[in-house]
């Protein structure tokens, strides 16, 4: 594997649920910090939603590895933010044999 060109500063976020006082929960996103990454887009597709159509594009996001359990290691269910763009993380795996990099499979959804 060649050295990825990690030129994008992404914010890693995780969902935080807090009681809403009425027996339910409200959820918000909390920043875990900034990571530098390389972003490789895949082939997009269009899907129908309730009142609009969505464009879904898969991405491979490559970043420096972090140990299991470290807050800087992405996990499925978290997301990356790049300005107003959001990338939902579906899977995380080591990108190379030495464990120097991680590959995150993520999806960006855009209303069309």
From TrEMBL:
Domain of life, source organism: Bacteria
Pfam families attached to this UniProt entry: Phage_HCP
Name listed for the protein in its UniProt record: Putative phage tail-head adaptor
Native organism taxonomy: Bacteria, Pseudomonadati, Pseudomonadota, Alphaproteobacteria, Rhodobacterales
């Amino acid at each position: 594997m060649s050295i990825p060109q990690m030129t994008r500063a992404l914010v890693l976020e995780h969902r935080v649920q807090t009681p809403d006082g009425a027996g339910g929960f409200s959820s918000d996103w909390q920043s875990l910090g900034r990571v530098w990454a390389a972003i490789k887009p895949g082939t997009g597709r269009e899907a129908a939603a309730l009142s609009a159509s969505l464009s879904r594009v898969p991405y491979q996001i490559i970043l420096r590895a972090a140990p299991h359990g470290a807050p800087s290691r992405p996990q499925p269910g978290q997301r990356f933010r790049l300005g107003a763009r959001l990338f939902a993380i579906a899977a995380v795996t080591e990108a190379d044999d030495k464990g120097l990099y991680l590959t995150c499979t993520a999806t960006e959804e855009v209303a069309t």
